[in-house]
Amino acid sequence: MRHISTVIALTGLFACLLVSALPHAASAASFDCERADLAADEKVICDTRSLNDADVKMVTTFDLLTGLMPMGNRDKLRDDQSAWLKKRQACGEDVDCIRATYDERLKQLDEAYRNLNRPL
């Protein structure tokens, strides 16, 4: 249990360090900031460092959890992620709204991690 927490923490730290080393416009982890057809929320994320960092943390945590969960729970996690993405997209260019969606999703992912069944 302690080992998994350490891995998640170190992965998050690594992801944040990686983002800080990349050029600003291309540093979002879950989509390409260089695409010509970016949605309004994606443009804001690419242009706002704190949102960009939140995106990296969210996608890293999501990917780790997906690998740790049994098959049935993975489907729910992915469905919840799709619903969350629609909610984020509905924010458009509203930075505070986008930030709130990331805060909410990261709390949900942290809760999912805490609820993982772990071998004793």
From TrEMBL:
Signal peptide positions (record): 1-25
Keyword match Signal: yes
Assigned keywords, A-Z: Signal
InterPro entries for this protein: Lysozyme_Inhibitor_LprI, UCP037256
4Fe-4S among keywords: no
Protein name listed in UniProt: Lysozyme inhibitor LprI family protein
Lineage: Bacteria, Pseudomonadati, Pseudomonadota, Alphaproteobacteria, Hyphomicrobiales
